[in-house]
Description:
This protein is α+β, with helices and mostly antiparallel strands. It has helices at residues 13-25, 33-38, 46-54, 64-71, 95-100, 104-113, and strands at residues 2-7, 58-63, 79-83, 89-93. The longest helix has 13 residues, at 13-25.
Amino acid sequence: xxxxxxxxxxxxxxxxxxxxxxxxxxxxxxxxxxxxxxxxxxxxxxxxxxxxxxxxxxxxxxxxxxxxxxxxxxxxxxxxxxxxxxxxxxxxxxxxxxxxxxxxxxxxxxxxxx
Length: 114
């Protein structure tokens, strides 16, 4: 199964710098809980990296602008989607569910259930 993770952030150097600054200065108002759970200020969280590297699922990670350019659709971000057998994208974990999660462990547990 292919799982597509879409962050509520745009790609690019300037956007990355702004995101890092926002995580440091005001982490409670940061708009991408998927980013917050899987990445710290410096880099990828070790627990997430181990899960990602051991998963048997194909994974694609995109910023919202990259997703919209590639798949020609818009969604509520952050979101996790799966590609079905007809190559259509089905919602796996919604924005609301992602934003309600408190830890990367909770995200990993949910992904293992699917």
